[in-house]
Fold this sequence. Notes:
Helices cover 74% and strands 0% of the residues of chain A. Chain A has 297 residues and is mainly α. Chain A has 2 domains: 2-70, no CATH class; 79-256, MetI-like (MetI-like fold).
Amino acid sequence: MSNSLSLQKLRTSVKVQRKIGIGLRMVIALILIIFSVFPVIWMISASLNPTGSLATQTLIPKKAGFENYRELLNSTEFPFWRWMGNSIKISTITSVGALSITTIAAYAFSRFRFRGRVTMLKGLLLINAFPGLLALVATFLMISQLGDIFPGFGLNTHASLILVYLGGAMGINIWLMKGFLDSIPRDIDESAMVEGASDWQIFTKLILPLLRPILIVIFILSYIGTYGDFVLARVLLKSTDQYTLMVGLQIFTGAQFSQRWGVFAAGALMGALPIMIIYLALQDQIVGGLTQGAVKG
Amino acid sequence: MPSLAGQDSPKKNILLSFLPELERFVLLIALDAAVGWFVYKLASLGYYPFAVAILLLAIVVNIVLLVRKAYPLRWMIVGLVLMGLFVIYPIIFTVWVSFTNYGEGHLVTHEQAITQILKIKYLPESGKAYSWTAYKSPQGDYALWLVDTQGNGYLAKVGQPLNQPQPGESGLGELDANGIPVTIEGYKKLNAIQAATDKNLTEILFGEAGKTIQIRSPKEAAELLPLYTYDPVRDVMIDLEVGTVYQNIRGTFSSPSGVTLKPGFIATINFNNFRDFFASSALRGPLLEVTAWNFGFAFFSLLLNFGLGLAIAVLFNDKSFPLKKLIRSLLLIPYTVPALITILIWRGMLNSDLGVISRAMDSLFGWSPPWFTDAWWARIAILLVNLWLSYPYFMLICSGALQSINEDYYGAAQVDGASRWQQFRYITLPLLLIAVGPLLVASFTFNFNNFNLIYIFNAGGPPIAGTPTPAGHTDILISYVYNLAFSGSRGFNYGFASAITIVIFFIVGAITLFQFRYTRMWEEVSKNV
Lengths: 297, 529
């Protein structure tokens, strides 16, 4: 009798404990959320603050309005659409190119057996362990030399930037893709081969459609990486109308950061929004891709 | 399962497989011809390393496309060529540059420097000086009328010996009061302003070879001789006026008393850059600090970011936790904003007088930290920003890894009476570390070279006072390299920058190899292959 009573007491106390636990964790979650979201809220608030300077900004602007956006979109020294267009163009071409290179190469690594295959796969991993940033000086000199012969691929061209990005396409993503390809049974290929299909036909007609989920993940990761890249674009691009959005934003802040804070915030927000939406909408797929080994950066 | 790459399987050349054999062959020849032209152009401009790289890659491409056994490589030839060109070649080039003095004052080749130095002229004791008047023809030819100290007039044209014509001869018009012809047939007299602003005029050597006359100043033209002569056997420059011998020392012609000739040129200087890195007392001060902070920054970033990410993952690793999905989405937000933008936003928020955080702290405590001007506060600010940027990533990978841990372990531990802390310490943590270990190492190496954060937040500042090369208290090696190579404010030095780059290569490479060796990754990799 007393035994079951104390058991019940224990149960209620466990329940209470659990409730307290959840409440406590809710408080922690709230603090963390404030820490996480505050800078973004601040950016939104700054972009709506009509006085537009860093010093006069309050969290809730006194007279919220879209003056900063109007100024941003009409500004000639801050050609937002031009920069955004450059960024989208470069990121799209790079991602499509990188995806093609990655997928086709991964198919060969997965389906063919040849000498040096394992060494090559490991070598790719090692080469990519060295950040390309370290060879920046050499890359810069090389592109300037290339431009002496082909001005279309020299300094201050998008083509040179895209080529250098594509140079890094044979990387960790090949492993990701190859892992996915290995999980597709080879019986499919073999039956097609019996029918007389060539390797290329098997790849494009049979395998490629099955790869859709991983193709999307790699495309998005590559797109976001290119869109957010700053250093290489900063070094290779020289004139205002060629800048990507990230380079433009950084240079804009150098000159008149605190006075033009509102305009900057408007530009930053509009530049960040597409990526934020993609991330939040596809977070499950992206997280899956990330945890399989691709590191942001 | 039989291998698909069996020799009898039907194979098509995947590159250009729609073309018959012959046409493909013709195309390859056309490609080779184009590459040949490109290599020739590169070599004629003196870009030998680049030319060699292209040539080697072209050979590889030919082999892959022609040799049947290399068939699988045709599937990746485009990627391999791009990688060779834009990843491997720059690495090799960096290694070469690190053994040279390439940089400000040493940008041209040995031959180019000699050509430039040989152009330098001097006025010998015996040389005659003249006052001059310039004439220009419609075709762009120039003539000079020279008057020596005795008042004799001479006509000087390019490539012809001086002569002393009288009015009427050689198309000469009447002389004015100063003895200068008013007109010369076929030429137009330039007034003082025209002559002074004509850029070509001072470059022209008038008169016959070996006895040339050049304009030295608006008042004076003189018979000049080359100042230096080059001795290719000893690789020295000899001053013809006073006989000084300038030796080639590390890419600069230098006299015994230390006078140097400009320009210097690119020269191999063996391990001098590396010696400077490890031994030069002038560089040592900033480099020690930069290196120490580089390791400290990467280590503390990892500790903080992983710590917070793990704590959140553990706290909310509870399927029934209310609003779990929403909380995760909100906590993910820092990760979704492009890093450059968030770094700039933080820079604004921490701005010493105007930023929101500084203003809030000022009004609460009457004091706010000097985030940008004090070395330690700047470091703390960088760690804080990096925490904001990266903890969601660790939160994601940790909660992924937590979910893959088998629940039975905890049941067994509870039976044995293990406390929650013990369960975490002896079950969760070890299993988690195995799963995310490689990612932690990757994150360490990423932060070790996290140029974006350092450069954008405060450009490595505040600056360290009195250093021979520009360096700041929050500079890491890679941002220090960037300043050396590109900022140019105190002279850029590609050679030294590349040498530091090589040192970073070895540090990062060692960490990576360590990762391969001591974590499961390598085995997993081998297994999957």
